[in-house]
Amino acid sequence: MLVSGVPGVPGAKAAIIGAGVVGKNALKMLVGMGADVTVLDINLNKLTYLDDIYGNRIKTLFSSSDNIEKAVSEADIVIGAVLLPGAVPRTSTIALNNATLRYGLMIADLGLDIAMNRSEPLKLGVNIYQGNCTCEGVCEAFNFEYVHLG
């Protein structure tokens, strides 16, 4: 089946389950090729964002069993995009390296204390500092005492 279709023949119907990195990239490709695309996710903020960007060129649905079953049964193409990192380890590793290498180099060049003071994103990524847990989510999950990095 030709994804875009041809005059007189409809294009492919695609269902993308998951609106994370893999899902958004699959969406770009399929919309660009002219497919009739439905995106499903449990995060309504992600679906709202995609609706804002693509408007009536796509359909968004909350990812429930019924909606998945209906979308998949009507689709010619199904993209399972729920397990991004584990399903594509080479790509996710390269992407992680691209996103974090500058912070590692900054720490190597300046030391952690100076690097944290110069980079708010780096500071926000520090979970343990001088033996203290500095990540609220980790502290809540494991009932640790939270220490704010100032």
**What Rg, in angstroms, do the CA atoms define?**
21 Å
Cross-sheet strand order for the largest sheet: 3-2-1-4
The proportion of residues in beta strands is 15-25%
SSE order, as H and E?
EHEHEHEHHHHEEH
Q: What coarse outline follows from CA principal-axis ratios? A: elongated
Whole-number mean pLDDT = 91
Number of helices: 8
| Poorly predicted tracts of residues | none
Report the sheet with the most strands, covering strand number, pairing sense and barrel closure.
4 strands, parallel
Share of residues in helices: 40-55%
The secondary-structure class comes to alpha/beta
Q: What is the tally of beta strands?
A: 6
Query: How far apart are the first and last residues' alpha carbons, in Å?
Result: 57 Å
Give keywords.
150 residues, alpha/beta, four-stranded parallel beta sheet, two-stranded antiparallel ribbon, 6 strands
Topology:
Layout: E1 13-17, H1 21-32, E2 36-41, H2 44-54, E3 58-62, H3 65-74, E4 77-80, H4 84-87, H5 89-110, H6 112-118, H7 120-124, E5 128-129, E6 132-133, H8 136-142
Parallel strand pairs: 1-2, 1-4, 2-3
Antiparallel strand pairs: 5-6
Helix pairs in contact: 5-6
Protein model, in words:
By secondary structure, the chain is of the alpha/beta class. Helix content is 52%, strand content 16%. The chain is built from 8 helices and 6 strands, in the order βαβαβαβααααββα. The protein has helices at 21-32, 44-54, 65-74, 84-87, 89-110, 112-118, 120-124, 136-142, and strands spanning 13-17, 36-41, 58-62, 77-80, 128-129, 132-133. A 4-stranded parallel sheet has the order 3-2-1-4, sandwiched between helices. Strands 5-6 form a two-stranded antiparallel ribbon. α5 (89-110) crosses α6.
